[in-house]
Design a protein that fits this description.
Oligomer: homodimer
Strand content of chain A: 5-15%
Radius of gyration of chain A: 24 Å
Structural class of chain A: alpha+beta
Helix content of chain A: 55-70%
Shape of chain A: globular
Distance between the termini of chain A: 62 Å
Order of helices and strands of chain A: HHHHEEHHHHHEEEEEEEHHHHHHHHHHHH
CATH class of one domain in chain A: Mainly Alpha
Chain lengths: ~575, ~575
């Protein structure tokens, strides 16, 4: 079966649970954007995803990308689909109208990319990188560079890359050695090798715009010595630049996206932004990029769930407990408790994740559009994005892999066989736990760089906000209080124990994820129309099988804090 | 890097922790088997694994098996390695001397197969199926059949298959439709299609012996209508039999092992055992086969750990917390707490799993060799195997996948790339959660068919035995008491709630796994020589990061029991 865009569910969460149309109406930029318009855009997006992108998922994995003497040939159908995609305006959905975009809310882009990733993660990698490049050029490039590249990248006519990693420098970009030497004409010559470059070379678009981290000759070592440069595949005069794809990687999955080793051989380029500010310029869109990866997790889990759910409703195996003998010789797999539990538990993660991801998309727009008119509201929105995004990225990409694997289990041996397509989803999903900052780095980002950095105040304020939205007798109040108290204990304990926060960061992120998920489901449960088995079964699975992890995580962290106090006293 | 047989660790656990030589000395069959002999056998096994089998792991995945008009060509080197393997006597290590075997303890076979699976899971599938076939023929076949096949299968000169699954019948073998029609000469003609047949066709050995479940024409429906038949690839007169491989499956991993669709086209065959007793004959070796799969889990996790550990000690990324600046520009990945935790936690599972698996191998020999001289001891050994084997199979195959994935994470982007070989381990490992009874079926087997079937008495006795081996102040006593009490509650609650046991079986199995793992580590900790960081770091990870799951699992089950009581009262 091919992925079916879950438009009804997505719209229920966006418009009924989150009342997105009312939220957005308060922003002047979206005065003309009503629910009917948004629903129409999403319906068209769903049609494009289902008709054009989803049918290429299997060929993307089976045939994959091919390397031939510096060229990369993408799987059959990929280029046509991409050309149709950008010409229909989809990459520019929420880009600014003055740059060639449609100026629509980030929420629509979020739903679009969730569906695209679910339908065909490999293909979606190409346009998925455009948005960061667009914002980076828009906010940091010179007017000359913008004149040449901004519209092309905003519309997606030309695709873009982010060239960060080097053979010896992965998570630690400060170790990067690529060099850029200034020329008398104001350009630079850039030399070095970058690895793991998604879409470094391909045939999807007529040009490729590389954004590359490198050092000026006199730059200091470490991250503050990095500047950002723009290197096009084809120069403005049409000649080929000195950028070479030396190889594409064989990998676990994501075969539809070429992962390139890129060699820059005194390539002519231009600086983007200020010297030594390369990391800052590249990370301007970090929250948006990480939200995209979280949405990949949600989408891939939905795709795996759809396959498992369909299989469980068409195949009979053994007698389910408590069923009397029926005419059929066995009961549906969906009727067996162990399988029902797997399916309902994934729905709890998918639906709750959607609430959080769509909410984050709304907050991104508020942070952007209210910064002048209502700076307090913009700061609150920024706080949400800052704290929730690493959680979405980490917890939901992990769930895409382990929950996707659980869905595979529903198919038994057929799940392990490529024919059914679910093992591809599990393989593809695995990479999302690594890229855009590994999940462990997300956890450190959350606890060390965000929560502890302000003494826990930002998170406490966010949790207090959430608590006001829970029913008075909701069990989530106790969890929020316990998490807040634990956060205060960590704030007190960490100055004397440099390792503590790093050791418990993963547990802490999981605990925050569960509190957020619980809140999301409280919002769903309070929405008219959610009192049906469709939503209630997943909510029950959340309570029974997902939330108990909260106590375990807190127990782990509390035990570690207790150890600390003992050893501090001893 | 290529897998290094961990002989020192395995021997420490077998001989120091479990005192296997002293245990085995009490069995008259092994009067001549002392520690020096066993150590010598294991050393030779380790050399064979490292020199012959491990180097073929990557080609097994990359080239894989190829199908060509009914023939299956295994990857380059596979046939030579297999021929060397059986000619050196390895398949017959613990087979009876009168059948051509060496009559050595099952423990040695267990360590051998753990190493083989770690080195090359795909290749090891072929000999891994021999042992069940050997026992099946030995205990159920007629003297005529034994004369023709027993020695060939015992020595591994001919490989064997188990043909159970059909296109519509996976876990539920009772639905199988393959038919066998008796002939006047005492043979049968067997017709039908079997799927997921590991090694159904290949070029490793000169003949293949298929053991096939099928129905006689007058057989009743369901599992009691199944009989077992032996169908050779080549008939005794050298002619090819009517067994055809129609296809091999593309799958997530395990490309070195051909997964075949086998068509039997009125194939001449012989019945093994009694009519209608086919399932019983095939499952005679169920505990041994499931122990083998548990050992695959342990071995694959060790293989993944070795790659992650090596990578973490050779690559530097960022400054680890609490480290002052050293000469190097960054610290080793192994020094970062989040990575150290992953590595130590997998060691906790590997080492503890080894204690349990090797103990189970010793119990298998005791159950076999004491059945006449000390039936009580044999019954206790049988109880251990019956209760511990499904736990080993389920919990350790799951850990091979999720823990293997965690080890992959240590390599970051390099983990996702095929070059490093760790993603292959994760893909290969996934199948072990499915075959030989899915992990969910193991959980139902444990709770419903074993624990609840005798009112919880067998497990209570086993746990009481374990408790006597724990230090008086060990936290495991409280967990054992809580698990025993919960088991009693389930015994009382299940008669009125048909679904309850099936809904909580997975949690129950995890809780038992954690109690067993805790006991295993108490045994390690009590062993002279274990007071080193090598063992203590893993033990600490067990306490900090693994055992807290026990409370969570009990909380989940207890909440479900409470629900039951409420609804029973209402």
């Amino acid at each position: 079966m091919i992925f079916q865009p879950p438009l009804q569910d997505s719209q229920f969460i966006a418009f009924e649970v989150l009342q997105a149309d009312r939220e957005l109406a308060s922003l002047s930029s979206f005065a003309d954007v009503d629910r009917a318009l948004m629903a129409q855009v999403l319906d068209e997006a769903g049609r494009f995803v289902a008709d054009v992108v989803a049918p290429l998922q299997s060929v993307g994995d089976r045939v994959g990308c091919r390397y031939d003497q510096g060229r990369v040939i993408t799987p059959p159908g990929f280029r046509d689909a991409y050309q149709a995609f950008w010409q229909a305006g989809w990459p520019a959905l929420s880009s600014a109208p003055e740059d060639g975009g449609q100026g629509l809310p980030v929420l629509l882009e979020a739903v679009l990319y969730e569906m695209l990733s679910a339908a065909n993660h490999g293909w979606t990698m190409a346009p998925g990188l455009l948005h960061g490049a667009y914002e980076c050029i828009k906010h940091h490039a010179s007017d000359d560079l913008k004149a040449r590249y901004l519209n092309k990248v905003a519309t997606g006519e030309w695709l873009a890359t982010m060239c960060l990693t080097e053979p010896h420098a992965g998570s630690d970009l400060g170790l990067a050695r690529t060099r850029a030497v200034p020329q008398v004409d104001g350009t630079y010559r850039l030399s070095g090798t970058k690895i793991f470059i998604s879409g470094g070379e391909h045939d999807l678009s007529d040009n490729i715009v590389h954004l590359v981290l490198a050092r000026l000759p006199d730059a200091p070592p470490g991250p503050k010595g990095l500047s950002l440069f723009l290197v096009p595949k084809f120069m403005p005069d049409g000649s080929r630049s000195a950028v070479h794809c030396d190889r594409i990687e064989e990998k676990m999955g994501l075969h539809g996206s070429p992962t390139c080793v890129m060699r820059f051989d005194e390539a002519t380029c231009w600086m983007v932004g200020e010297p030594g500010r390369g990391l800052g310029a590249m990370f301007v869109m970090m929250n948006a990029a990480r939200l995209h990866v979280g949405l990949q997790g949600i989408g891939l889990l939905e795709a795996a769930w759809q396959k498992a759910q369909a299989y469980s409703l068409e195949r009979r195996q053994m007698r389910a407990p408590g069923r009397s003998k029926s005419a059929a010789e066995a009961d549906f797999i969906a009727e067996h408790p162990a399988m029902r539990r797997i399916l309902d538990t994934q729905r709890a993660w998918i639906d709750g994740g959607r609430v959080l991801a769509y909410r984050t998309a709304l907050e991104l727009d508020q942070a952007k559009h209210l910064s002048v008119t209502d700076p307090d509201a913009a700061a609150r929105a920024q706080r949400w994005c800052s704290l929730v995004t690493p959680v979405l990225k980490s917890a939901w990409t992990e769930q895409a892999f382990v929950g996707g694997s659980a869905c595979l289990q529903v198919l038994g041996g057929h799940g392990y066989v490529s024919e059914w397509g679910i093992e591809q989803i599990v393989r593809d999903a695995r990479v999302a736990m690594i890229y855009e900052g590994t999940n462990e780095i997300q956890a450190i980002d959350l606890l060390v760089r965000k929560v502890l950095a302000d003494g826990g105040q930002g998170l406490a304020a966010l949790l207090a906000d959430l608590a006001t939205q829970l029913p008075a007798d909701h069990a989530g109040h106790a969890r929020i209080q316990r998490l807040t108290a634990l956060t205060n204990a960590l704030v007190r304990a960490t100055p004397a124990d440099a390792s503590l926060a790093f050791e418990v960061a993963d547990d802490y992120l999981r605990a925050v994820a569960l509190v957020l998920l619980d809140w999301a489901w409280a919002r769903i449960a309070a929405t008219p129309g959610a009192a049906t088995p469709r939503w209630q079964d997943a909510h029950r699975a959340l309570t029974r099988h997902v939330l108990p992890e909260f106590d375990m995580r807190l127990q782990i962290i509390e035990a570690r804090c207790a150890n600390f106090h003992e050893s501090a006293v001893a």
